[in-house]
Design brief:
The complex is a heterodimer of chains A (about 350) and B (about 350). Helix content of chain A is about 35%, strand content about 25%. Chain A folds into 2 domains: about 220 residues, Rossmann fold (3-Layer(aba) Sandwich); about 100 residues, no CATH class. Chain A has an 8-stranded mixed beta sheet, sandwiched between helices. Chain A is of the alpha/beta class and about 350 residues long. Chain B is an alpha/beta fold and about 350 residues long. Chain B is about 30% helix and about 20% strand. Chain B is built from 12 helices and 12 strands. Chain B has an 8-stranded mixed beta sheet, sandwiched between helices. In chain B, strands 2-1-4-5 form a 4-stranded antiparallel beta sheet. In chain B, strand 4 and strand 5 form a beta hairpin. In chain B, helix 5 runs parallel beside helix 6. The longest helix of chain B has 18 residues. Chain B is globular, with a radius of gyration of 22 Å. The chains are: A alpha/beta (about 350), B alpha/beta (about 350). At the A-B interface, helix 7, helix 8, helix 9, helix 10 and helix 11 of A face helix 5, helix 6, helix 7, helix 9 and helix 10 of B.
Amino acid sequence: MALLEVNDLKTYFRTDDGIVKAVDGVSFQVEKGQTLGIVGESGCGKSVTCLTIMGLNAKRNTITSGNALFRGEDLLTMNSRRLREIRGDDVAMIFQDPMTSLNPVHTIGRQLTEAVLLHRDVTKSQARARAVELLKAVGIPRADRRIDDYPHQFSGGMRQRVMIAMALVNDPDLLIADEPTTALDVTTQAQILELMNRLQREFGSAIIIITHDLGVVAETADDVVVMYAARIAEQGTVDEIFKRPHHPYTWGLLGSLPRLDTDTERLVQIPGQPPSLLNPPRGCRFHPRCPYVMNVCKQEEPELKQVTGDHDHLQRCWLDEQTKDREAAKLLHASMAEATS
Amino acid sequence: MSDDLLVVEDLEKHFPVTRGIIFQKQVASVQAVDGVSFTVKPGETLGVVGESGCGKSTMARCIMRLLDPTGGKVIFDGRDITNLSRAQMRPIRREMMMIFQDPYASLNARKRVGFIVAEALEVHKLGTDAEVKRRVQELLEVVGLNPEHYNRFPHEFSGGQRQRIGVARALAVNPKLIVCDEPVSALDVSVQAQILNLLKDLQQDFGLTYVFIAHDLNVVRHISDRVMVMYLGKVAELAERDKLYAAPKHPYTGALLSAVPIPNPEMGRQRKPVVLEGDVPSPINPPSACRFHPRCPRFHEGHCDVEEPPLYSFSNGHVAACHYPLERWPLTAEEFRKAQSGPTGAKATAEAEA
């Protein structure tokens, strides 16, 4: 049994303009010790997926269906007391923006020990010792003194490390990281990714990392889910997604990336904008932006199907396999040829 | 010399840190930009990279005279603009425009797109109302927006479209130089590609010169002809794009390059990034001599923290401020830590002459 199994997850928001289908039938699994990367443009539903799993959407306007089984227990239907026991203890989350997700009027020590005191039967000084230990683990110098500082006394990278320490304080089995490095410089990003890798090796936690940076995904993830307009466009192991991408959207994402390992004069751009989720396009949701669009794409939405010869690799596109292999090979060949030259 | 569009000499911007309410006395200064020199040729793109807080944006604002530099010179198109008055600056502002980072904050939410783009034309009294309107619609078309959107408000546009409006606004008065301050860092990759392609096309069509500031090394490499790396208000390295990325000399550049994730799982797994310790120190009290020395893996005690490295020059125009430059690239982690050659000095000058 997988540690986390998400089946046909749907999250709809009621708004004045109608129902926004922010997540529309998403399924994936995360095994112990594995990292799942979720990529996609802003507004594709990647963050909402994770907020739903954590039960953090406002109840009033949200319609949720499907299930999210954490060790067989459904996180979506469980009562709030049990959910509070799990959240912050077995499942923890690192939020995107450390500037806004730390409480500015409490010391970081107070914010760190809160989670320990809630979930563990320990004294305050034990909790504090644990917090200092974690701050040391995430590489904050003079942790025993810095623990009494307020968030504004830390730099962006250090605040993000405090967020990570807070998420890890109870050794979670599943860590959900929502764009953990987006606001950071490359050098700090390298430090944080290294840290997450090390913690995964030491504690064997599973990680879900949400990002729009394909470089980060390539370096950290074992499996990848590519989301487009609230649905999964493609899903597979990291090598498959980068070597044999099967969806034109994935090709677009890979092609639009200026990268150090290749030399392209002109980037491939995906024309247009992501669609509104109030009123997604008929048929394949990517068809208005797809350079390979056919008649069938406009009429009928393709199913998420297995790629022949690889049961882990799923994709949602009408194009025949030969065309796809050819296009994927072209993309890969271009990058390989330039990398070696 | 005279054919450079922009010459920046020893530019310095220190912000005072004061104590007291009535009798303010200066207790320290933030050395945001401290002795930066470079030149930009017409039609060229100079990329500027560095971590947040290294002074890249302050530098851009000093060039544009949005901030007054505390020292050094800015020579634009053969004219020293460092000490010009506001009135004297006004005609020059037509020649240099800026594209800002955040397309959500840099457009006035209460004004229509037509007004936003036309404002500079009106300030400089370029044309009648009808001409201005025609020009604005033409500009909207140039940047790939629908000219009919003339009367819309910024909130009706997506992030990428807003940045196109920002580009149209910068183009309105036919400037020679455009300073782009992180123009794509707030955008999604696919939209980012659209804007980068647009900027490249415009450069070709209108012969624009860019100073392009970004923290993303991939983006800078894609768009620049030459690249300048800044660290804590100083130039760490300046070189032609291909030289800098293929053979960086400064350990800081090396560390930056090795920290960039590669979107290729196989290559990524083999890669061993040089992870720098700690954060960028405060520019209020920067480290002595070489400002990078507390984080530098090649730090030599008694040299790097005592003698400030000048910009040693390597082959044509490649300069780096380091006593112990990288011998070659890529290096293994051990080689990176251990400098094989001694202090640069004589060696670098010999190389430059050869």
